[in-house]
Specification:
Length: 209
């Protein structure tokens, strides 16, 4: 199954992509990882991409597309793949359509208020790296594991989260329309426990029990 996985920051995409990889036995392909690996392996496209990165420039679409094609031709993609973080624009989606047959675009949707509550309630321990949600801390601001002070990451402040969501929506709305028009979009509401959400994901892929 050749899949694109869409979802805003804080939707739990990482968790569910991992479950899908385990269930379907197909790799998750994130553009960032792919880029780093191609550069490390010194493939021709990887080296080309590196010249842009070294110059502090964005890697152009045509280079990214060649990189994606190179990656999708590898053996582990034989049974399919989960594309994460690509495509980001309709132009990229159209270019992808030239080199790959996408079966389904999974859109993990979570209400803004829920994401803001999840992320802005997150507290991390600078000492042991533990991550908690305020709703589990009973008003304490100390790490339950090691007793150190818990902090809120700058990225998790409500204003920053709201801003990240707005940027995500603006970028993704045209992509959602594009794949919806092609009849490939499956939207799953990412609410409930991870197991409940995973059941909805599998059912959206027509693999539900
Ligand atoms: Zn700690």
């Amino acid at each position: 199954m050749n899949m694109i996985f869409l979802g805003p920051p804080g939707a739990g995409k990482g968790t569910h992509a991992q479950m899908l990889m385990d269930t379907l036995g197909i790799p998750q392909i994130s553009t960032g990882d792919m880029l780093r690996k191609a550069i490390k392996a010194g493939t021709p496209v990887g080296l080309e991409a590196k010249t842009f990165i070294d110059a502090g420039a964005l890697v152009p679409d045509d280079v990214v597309i060649r990189l994606v094609r190179e990656r999708l031709l590898q053996q582990d993609c034989g049974k399919g793949y989960i594309l994460d973080g690509f495509p980001r624009t309709v132009a990229q989606a159209m270019a992808l359509g030239e080199i790959a047959a996408i079966d389904v675009v999974l859109n993990l949707d979570v209400p803004d208020a829920e994401i803001i509550s999840r992320l802005s309630g997150r507290r991390v321990c600078g000492s042991c790296g533990g991550t908690y949600h305020v709703s589990w801390l009973n008003g304490s601001d100390k790490c339950p594991a090691c007793g150190e002070q818990l902090i809120m990451r700058q990225d998790d402040s409500p204003e920053t989260v709201a801003n990240r969501l707005a940027v995500y929506k603006e970028q993704t709305a045209p992509l959602i329309k594009f794949y919806s028009d092609l009849g490939l979009l499956r939207t799953v509401m990412g609410e409930g426990t991870p197991d409940e959400i995973q059941a909805k994901v599998l059912s959206a892929l027509h693999m539900g029990a």
